[in-house]
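RESIDUES AND SHAPES:
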Amino acid sequence: MDVQRNKEDEEAIRGALTSLKTSTSIPVTMYGTVLADNRIQITQWVGLRTPALQNLVIDPGVGVSGRVMSTRRPVGVSDYTRANIITHEHDKAVQDESLHSIVAVPVIVAREIRGIIYVGVHSPVRLGEKIIEEVTLTARTLEQDLAVNSALRRTDQPHGAKSNRAINGAEWEQIRSTHSKLRMLANRVEDDSVRRELEALCDQMVSPVRVKQSTKLSARELDVLSCVALGHTNVEAAEEMGIGAETVKSYLRSVMRKLGAHTRYEAVNAARRIGALP
């Protein structure tokens, strides 16, 4: 993979790191780019106190990065320098930055690990499942942004035509928010024809993803997922949809079963991967 990042990709990565730091209050967020020789270089960061980890190049199989690359799954360590599931070639750099707990999540596009998102804290605080879910959700969103950018770059343009500009992370969030609000609006409309038109508009917003949707979700299930994607609790979703909280739970359980998800955040990610949500 080309080391030189497309500007749109860099903006998407920077937006993801900044958004993650803001939403979780985690002091350090970083992105490691997978180089052509499978080494990883820390290319973007927010909140680092020292230059110890800036532009650090990590050899294959080394540290938490190596663990992520080999398992293709999120990895968290609560005490980096003492963790027995990783190697320790870069302990000095981590100690110089005074990082204690670290979570790392792969960013996978077209089945290829394009990079790794890291979050870390300077104090002896354990980063729990909630943080891992938040980092994973950010990684899945970034994957979609990078996939869209790649697709746009592959699109053949007529000679001399101006290339389409890729949608950045902030614009994707606005699209997703609009999609969710449209679904909620459709839910409140009593006129069947108007409601169908609104639902058709929602479908058009996800159709550019061009992913075959093999799992069929009902309109109500999509409504619940749209609320979850906006960060609503079950009670808030129930109020928004005009149904009971237990009914929301029932729809959510059905969605998670259909999508093979274990958490509400995994369900949102899975729905986005099949093109059911933007």
Remarks:
- The mean pLDDT is 83.
- The longest strand covers residues 112-121.
- The CA atoms of residues 77 and 102 lie 6 Å apart.
